[in-house]
Design goal:
three-stranded mixed sheet, 4 helices, globular
């Protein structure tokens, strides 16, 4: 009869070591799953797209994700498309809407008023005897809308390289508005009555500039009114008044 050998049970310590090894292998596998392919964040598409999009951006204007962003194309595409849409909107506004709005703001005021300029007015100048050495400037609105005469006229005789200052005390309380067909006025003191001015000369040509709604800004086309055949004499004392509602106010009479 063949004798069967009884296998003695494994020592208890050996079974404990085997169990501990199994636990360790399981923990290592879980750690590898969480951190092995891009870290734990790779399993969460929302967080994976935030960091790469900040660091790497997108390839081209179509919102195509960079290689580091392939984990969540939906979020990347949404972000990129949103940015492209914003840029496109800004470009359109700058190219058309903003230009129209700016033009409207610069040209139009309350109640549909526009700026008075050389293109919608008729301008004449006339030397006067009183006050002495003065010239009256008359602007008539030839347009179909009311127009505003803002601040004061900017005079340039011939090729003069300086602009005469305005008399601050003549500034009106409100902007002078001309109804269609209406007129506004300003005056210029051409030279000092006591002869204290310097650099006196006779001008043959005059350009009058209009200011916009902010000081020293352009209000539109200039005017070139005709001067008397003998010309206009002026010197360094040349100053102008602000625009006024009447000739009497402009001349201080």
């Amino acid at each position: 009869m063949t004798a069967f050998r009884r296998h003695s049970p494994r020592p208890r310590s050996t079974r404990r070591l085997a169990g501990a090894a199994a636990v360790a292998l399981t923990a290592f596998a879980l750690t590898a799953c969480q951190n092995g392919a891009g870290g734990k964040e790779a399993a969460a598409p929302g967080s994976a797209t935030v960091a790469p999009s900040t660091a790497g951006g997108t390839n081209g204007a179509q919102g195509t994700p960079t290689p580091g962003q392939q984990g969540a194309p939906g979020a990347v595409a949404a972000s990129s498309t949103g940015a492209a849409k914003t840029s496109a909107g800004t470009g359109a506004a700058a190219g058309s809407g903003s230009g129209e709005a700016k033009g409207s703001a610069d040209a139009s005021g309350a109640g549909g008023r526009v700026q008075c300029a050389g293109s919608n007015t008729a301008v004449t100048v006339q030397p006067v005897t009183r006050p002495l050495n003065h010239m009256l400037i008359t602007v008539r609105n030839t347009g179909s809308k009311p127009c505003d005469l803002t601040y004061y006229p900017v005079l340039r005789f011939d090729e003069m390289q300086w602009a005469p200052a305005a008399r601050k005390e003549t500034q009106p309380q409100a902007v002078v508005t001309l109804a269609p067909g209406g007129s506004g006025y300003a005056a210029a003191m051409l030279s000092a009555a006591d002869g204290s001015g310097e650099g006196g000369t006779t001008a043959r040509r005059l350009t009058i500039g209009f200011q916009g709604r902010t000081p020293n800004s352009s209000g539109g086309a200039s005017a070139t009114p005709a001067l008397p055949p003998q010309g206009i004499y002026y010197d360094s004392s040349l100053v102008v008044t602000y625009w006024q509602q009447s000739a009497a106010e402009a001349l201080g009479s």
